[in-house]
Amino acid sequence: MRGMRVLIAGMILALVGAASGHPASAQAPFPTKFSPEIAARADVKAALAYVDREFEAQVNEWIHLTEIPGLSGHEQKRAEYIAGELTKLGLTPQSDTMGNVWAVRKGTGGGPSVVFAAHMDTVQPLDTPLKVRREENGTMHAPGITDDTAALPAQLQALRAMREAKVETKGDLVFLFTVQEEVGLKGMYHWIEQHRGITDMLVAVDGGLGPVNYGALGIYWSRMKFSGDGGHTLSSRDRPNTVRAAARCIERIYSVPLPPADDPVPAIYNVGGMMTSGQVVNAIPQEVTFTVDLRTVDPALLQTLDKSIMATCEEAAAWQKVKFTREWIQRSEAGGRPEQLAARRAHPVVQTAIDILRFLDVSLPASREAVPSGATDGNVGVLLGIPTVSIGAANGGGGHTLQEWARTDSAKTGTQQIVLMAVSLAEIAGR
Questions:
Q1: Strands 114-119 and 201-205, how do they pair?
Q2: Hey, which residues does 110 pair with through a beta bridge?
Q3: pLDDT band at 5 (very low <50, low <70, confident <90, very high)
Q4: Alpha-carbon distance 131 to 117, whole Å?
Q5: Phi, psi of 269 (to 5 degrees)
Q6: What whole-number distance in Å separates Cα of residue 272 and Cα of residue 289?
Q7: Which of 40, 57, 88 is CA-nearest to residue 420?
Q8: How far apart are CA 231 and CA 112, in angstroms?
Q9: How many CB atoms lie under 10 A from the CB of residue 58?
Q10: Which helix (H) or strand (E) covers residue 288, if one does?
Q11: Which helix (DSSP H) or strand (DSSP E) does residue 187 occupy?
């Protein structure tokens, strides 16, 4: 859901002002499970070297997966490819009724179980041209190439690297490839509901390299519907009018007060990403719909704003004597304000991710190393109380557009990051 993260960039910048970011030299308050000694082990070094040595093969796989259509609900071809690669690795791929695919890399015992989740779906229609254009300046261009296709070969390559280097962890590693993340995290919600109690830590691999996200942005997507008898223009005077009700509602929604843009816990709404009305000029339509996108990390504020928007719609419907109903498109609750997430920031999973990025020379300004927000599969873990972070697989831009692009070499760092996260969180065997 890289596009969501781009859309809320301004909100993230505001949130980090209230977060507990600290430079590497001041890590004492936050425990970590990573150390340079882990990365210096012969087996881990061999795994990292494999990623470096075989990177061109990973890029080719990245291109191949990008060129397989993956619209939400149509991820089957990608899933088939991934399941085949998991089988080649000697693992036993599993799938469920939603279409999620995963495999468990068993540990030696005595360590925590860590789930790495990347989503297979993209937002572009199935007939979108997906041919990847690779430039000499080190970039690749194609719809969906970063969000979240970059994470798919990164997870597969991390598994190959650990297998080649004979790396063992104490805890189990679950590599999960989810469906329908872009339309409400549906695959992740389904998978985790069916596998309660097995996830000690969750790492969502989605987006760019840094910052590390450890919260959950509340996202309410609603379709507001106004319906009535309709009528011919010639007999429309003083008749109930669905369009007038919808227009009044939209105008007044934008008078619902929001916190200042620079507030440490901002909120935002948008009306009309999708709108429908009549099909002829000379009539009052029987039905008018529009969508509302409402977001904030503050649970109480999310509820307050939602109630205000609903009251506005109900008032407009009563004014025009038409019927109003709301249809939910997505309802993902808010994870909490920064101060409510203090314990989550203190969990080792967050600082481990930060320390690994710094070890790999990824620039993370102190004010942006950890963000108490997120709009990925990781939101599901946050809401269920599972220690969770969201990390990226590669840097790029233009998410959810036809101009999406990726910085090719950044995926090498993203893959090495997954290897180091795996051996640190699930605990490298033999220590």
A1: parallel
A2: none
A3: very low
A4: 25
A5: -135, 155
A6: 9
A7: 40
A8: 64
A9: 21
A10: strand 287-296
A11: helix 186-194
Comparing CA positions, the residue from 401, 321, 306 lying closest to residue 6 is 401
- Amino acid letter for position 118: A
Distances from the Cα of 414 to the Cαs of 54, 320, 338, 407, 430, in angstroms? 14, 55, 27, 11, 25
Letter string b/e over residues 62-91, b meaning 16 or more CB atoms within 10 A of that residue's CB: bbebbebbbbbbbbeebbebbbebbeebeb
Cβ within 8 Å of residue 340, ≥6 positions away: none
Burial of 423 (0-12, 13-18, 19+ CB in 10 A): buried
DSSP secondary-structure letter at 328?
E
Closest CA to 68 of 136, 2, 124: 124
What domains appear along the chain, each with residue ranges and CATH number?
Answer: 2-216+335-425 (3.40.630.10), 218-332 (3.30.70.360)
Q: Provide the pLDDT confidence category of residue 261 given band limits of 50, 70 and 90.
A: confident
Helices and strands, counts by H and E, the chain: 14, 18
Cα 280 to its chain centre, rounded Å, is: 40
Q: Which H or E element spans position 304?
A: helix 299-320
Residue 18 has pLDDT above 60, yes or no: no
Rounded Cα distance, 144 and 208, in Å: 13
Kindly give, in sequence order, each residue whose CB lies less than 8 Å from that of residue 181, ignoring residues fewer than 6 positions away. Answer: 1, 72, 119, 121, 148, 187, 188, 206, 376, 377
Please answer whether residues 419 and 155 qualify as being in contact, where contact means their C-beta atoms are separated by less than 8 angstroms: no
Give the distance, in angstroms, between the CA of residue 193 and the centroid of all CA atoms in the same chain: 18
- CA separation for the pair 261, 258 (Å, rounded): 8
What pLDDT score was predicted for residue 13? 41
- The pLDDT tens digits for 364-402 are 987 789 999 999 999 999 999 999 999 999 999 999 999
Q: To which residue do tokens 């080792």 refer?
A: 348
Closest CA to 383 of 184, 209, 221: 184
Q: Which structure tokens are listed for 192? A: 């985790």
**Tokens at 260, concatenated:** 């200042």
Judge whether 431 and 179 are in contact, CB under 8 Å: no
Q: For the CA atoms of the chain, what is the radius of gyration?
A: 23
